Amino acid sequence: MTNGLGGYASGPVAGAATLRYHGWFVPNLSEPRGRHVLLPRLDDSVVSDEGAWQLGAHLAQFRLEGTLPVWRFELPGRVIERRVVMPHGRHAVVVRWQLVEGAPCRLLLRPFIAARRQDAALQPDEVPAWQARTVAGGGLQVALGCGGADLQLQPLAPGAAFTADPLIDRHCHFSMEAERGYDHTEHQHSPGHWTLQLAAGQAVALQATMAGDAPLAEPQALLQAERDRQLLLLATAGLAEQEEDIEARLVLAADAFIVQPGSRAEEADGSFRSVMAGYHWFNDWGRDTMISLEGLTLCTGRHAEARAILHTFAGYIRDGLLPNLFPEGGRQALYHTVDATLWFFHALDRYTLRSGDDTLVPELFPALREVIRHHVRGTHYGIGMDPQDGLLRAAADGYQLTWMDAKMDGWVVTPRRGKPVEIQALWFNALRLMAAWAQRFEQPDDGFDDLADRTGTSFNRRFWSAPHGHLLDVVDGPDPAAPDDASLRPNQVFSLSLTYPVLERRHWPAVLQAVRAELLTPMGLRTLGPREPAYRPHYQGDLRSRDGAYHQGTVWPWLLGHFVDGWLRAHGDVPAARGFLDALPAHLRQAGIGQVSEVFDAQAPHHPGGCIAQAWSVAELLRAWQATRPTACLDNLPEEEADHG
Questions:
Q1: Among 67, 150, 193, 292, which residue's beta carbon has the most beta carbons within 10 A?
Q2: Is 387 helix (H, G, I), strand (E, B) or coil?
Q3: What are φ and ψ of residue 608, in 5° steps?
Q4: CA-CA-CA-CA torsion for 23, 24, 29, 35, nearest 10 degrees?
């Protein structure tokens, strides 16, 4: 669950946390900056004259109402339901219990409190870093000891009583952290427990907020407000709520990533918007945001937020580059990327076409023109146009500049230095868009079409490999003995999927066939062909093992969106294109419930891995799903296309 500020609540359906990131309340704070695990654990049990029961041991059903989770516990003679809501736009979470059937009983709640950033190392400390004191109404105010506001825990029940009986649960084990090769134990500290009376048909709740925040509405009103907000999201997307409707589920999944960043105070005036790349550990990334923008906002009818996102990132352009990412808890952007800036042109194009807003391009055109000039002259990280052939090159020792960006301890796994294939496709598309915008909006033209012509001619001469039957992945690399890389990778699909395809039409079928034969899986595209020497079939193990496989075969579902675009452009076969997506909807119930994972193993059965909720995975699946409706048309493509667009 998310709150529209980058904060979340997350954990295994059945109980104990398996990752350091899990917690009932993980807000994205401005002070201290970043997402912090404040309420990592909440033990709930029922006591009556007949005995005592841990609720987690009696889970009978779990379901989602929209995106709101509901647990149903069946105990001897009693049925209890637990619900959770994060009020949108608030640093808060409310957990609610209701006795649905059975005799009255007592509910015991024991909170465990932490005060660590969600990506921090685990420290098995004997003494907690926080201090708690009771306040009116049986609540707790917790001084976190890490700066910023205090945590406020307030029971919402008549006669709620808190018993101070501190407890240390030593060496709590996070099993998935152990599998991932990280430190994986911590001492968890609880100040005591509440005793709440549960009567048949009645509900009690616990709310967690930051001290000093405005009061919350009562729990049932918060739950209803969130359900109403989600129904409005569906209506905005032109949908009604249907339990098994995949498009509706994806529209609600998309909402988790669109945020007003809670950790950057300069963006707190309400007009800024960004995209969280993935939960739990990714923040907002420029590349992910621009790739995701169409699916998250335009396919869901959220045009105003799309415009706000484009405005937000345009304000961060420096020396012709869009930010690669904002580090967790940081306010200074990092710019080591060659493709995020070029994806910005694509996102702006999709926004203009789908929203009908003709005001944003003229407003941003001077900045876009400077971006092109910086790329022609050359900017940081060796990013610049080769004056000999018009292709865009990028190379800087120790940096991973394309989306294949795994790096560990100075090891750049897929450096791809030189002239990567998708960078040329994006560069060509950006130049053609600038030429079209200059004419349409009567803006200065710096010879964009001439630059695009040179790029297109050079691209088709340099990248098509008849012996391999597909495009090269990189040309003019740093190794003089082998400057060109012919590895079979999915990056070539962008040469025919963008608004202006750089690849000559005669090569489209061969490229699609090579990708389909070797890279296509039910969950997405492999990042490297199985016949390649560096191919890795599984994404697992410690960080070095996982990074070594991240783009060396591991499947990424977001790539399916552009494969579908290319397929529709080349073949116009909508039923076949929909078939490429058939396996993914079932995944909505398999890992991050109601979400789409970041990656999958390259080999069957394609186990999910990485983030349990990834922005571009959801965005591109939703976009492709809409594009392959039985009544879908290709209104997102130019009606007439010559070679090189």
A1: 292
A2: coil
A3: -75, 155
A4: 20
Question: Per-residue pLDDT tens for 626-637?
Answer: 999 987 544 444
Number of H helices, E strands in the chain: 16, 37
Contact between residue 196 and residue 109 where contact means Cβ atoms under 8 Å apart: yes
Which residue type does 366 have? Answer: P
How far is 560 from 574, CA to CA, in rounded Å? 14
Half-sphere exposure of 202 (CA within 13 A, CB side): 14
CA distances from 207 to 156, 218, 300, 334 (A): 7, 10, 31, 36
218: exposed, middle or buried (Cβ count in 10 Å: 0-12, 13-18, 19+): middle
Return the C-alpha torsion angle 584, 585, 587, 590, nearest 10: -170
* CB-CB contact of 114 with 132 (8 Å): no
pLDDT tens digit string along 213-247? Answer: 999 999 999 999 999 999 999 999 999 877 679 99
In the predicted structure, residue 148 carries a pLDDT above the cut 80: no
Average confidence (pLDDT) over 438-465: 97
What radius of gyration, in Å, describes the C-alpha atoms of the chain?
A: 26
* pLDDT on residue 268: 55
Which long-range contacts link 541-544 to residues 24+ away (Cβ below 8 Å)?
Answer: 541/179, 541/180, 541/181, 542/180, 542/181, 542/182, 543/180, 543/181, 543/182, 543/408, 544/181, 544/408, 544/409, 544/411
Give me the amino acid identity at 571. Answer: H
Tokens for 562?
């552009």
Q: Is 599 left (phi over 0), alpha (psi -120 to 50) or beta?
A: beta
What does the pLDDT look like over 522-554, one tens digit per residue? 999 999 999 999 999 999 998 899 999 999 999
Distances (CA, A) of 350 to 266, 353, 356: 28, 5, 10
Distance (Å, whole) CA 535 – CA 528? 6
